[in-house]
Design a protein that fits this description.
about 250 residues; alpha/beta; eight-stranded parallel beta barrel; 11 helices; about 15% strand; globular; binds phosphoenolpyruvate
């Protein structure tokens, strides 16, 4: 049984005060949970706050992005070593918003995975199809291309230490959630695809669902055989909602 992971992606939201309140709310809310793993990915400026406040808690810290390069003249970028320095465990890589607004494709995403892993952090690799692609019946092709494009660059062994998030683009921030059956079908497909190269990695790897996960739908999604957690955007900005999703993860954990 894979331990469920619920990771909150705050995106570019919050203030110092709201970040502090949200982090404290999450710490208090999940303190009694022991079976689900919980992570929070705040914007870069609040990582320090997270590092300080999570010290006594089991909640892990994550970042939303990182630079492909190790250090040097890359104005505005943040290096993997810096994130590791602030105690990050996870880094989201290949989020659809990075793919769409910043032109990140497999080449860059693969480099980010490598630099992330080289600093001992675990990438959360996001994949997902657009509504148009789904309507054209291309979901499996798109997902397979995204996964294969990474494997061909970093090798299957890199998936030993990596989480995948299936995030249908049409469900992100839209309030429309994939049904448990729709999500399970793609998760199963991803696991099979990886299984063609390594049965052991396919069995072990966690595949999170992301896309308007909320307290009301979390339990049904998380109960699916191949859904091992959630990457939560909007609902992670409200402590009570995020904690309720974590509780759903705890409830389905073996
Ligand atoms: C995300 O951006 O990773 C996400 C899943 O967002 P939301 O939950 O708001 O759809």
């Amino acid at each position: 049984m894979r331990q469920p992971l619920i990771a909150g992606n705050w995106k570019m939201n919050g203030t110092k005060a709201s970040a502090e309140a949200l982090i404290s709310g999450v710490i208090d809310g999940v303190a009694a949970l022991s079976k689900v793993e919980v992570a929070v990915c705040p914007p870069f400026p609040y990582l320090y706050l997270g590092e300080q406040l999570f010290t006594e808690s089991s909640v892990r810290l994550g970042a939303q992005n990182l630079c492909t390069e190790e250090a040097g003249a890359y104005t505005g970028e943040v290096a993997a070593s810096m994130l590791a320095d602030f105690g990050c465990t996870y880094v989201i890589c290949g989020h659809s918003e990075r793919r769409e607004y910043y032109g990140e494709a497999e080449e860059i995403i693969a480099k980010k995975l490598q630099v992330c892993a080289s600093r001992g952090m675990t990438p959360i690799l996001c994949v997902g199809e657009t509504l148009e692609q789904r309507e054209q019946g291309m979901t499996r092709t798109v997902i397979a291309d995204q996964i294969d494009g990474i494997i061909s660059r970093v090798g299957i062994d890199a998936f030993e230490r990596l989480e995948i998030a299936y995030e249908p683009v049409w469900a992100i921030g839209t309030g429309v959630t994939a049904t448990p059956d729709q999500a399970q079908e793609v998760h199963e497909f991803i696991r099979q695809r990886i299984g063609e190269l390594s049965g052991a990695i396919a069995e072990k790897i966690r595949i999170l669902y992301g896309g308007s996960m909320k307290p009301a739908n979390a339990r049904d999604l998380l109960a699916q055989a191949d859904i091992d957690g959630g990457l939560v955007g909007g609902a992670s900005l409200v402590a009570g909602d995020f904690v309720a999703i974590c509780q759903a993860g705890e409830a389905v954990a073996g």
